[in-house]
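Following up on my earlier thread - several people asked me to post the actual chain instead of describing it. Fair enough. Here it is, all 82 residues.
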Amino acid sequence: MMYPYITLDDETEIVHSELLKDNTVKVYIEKPDENDGFHCASCYLPGYEWKDISGFSEEEIKKYQTIIENNAHLIIELSQNG
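Reply from S.P.:
Thanks for posting it. Predicted structure:
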């Protein structure tokens, strides 16, 4: 199950999973796009491992990396509460 975390001004949504069996948390980012429908990517905490990046530039991923790094402690705490 995924839980909403934040919606940014540009309609980008960041959601997270509950704590997974391997003690990671999946952070999923999705942004609407007029041409492609949606851009999306997954980042797994605590290692900040990015997977399944579709439509985002390297610069955008760096921006989201910073947001996730600044909020990781909260996201991990929330993931444990289900």
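The chain has one helix and five strands. That should answer part of your original question.
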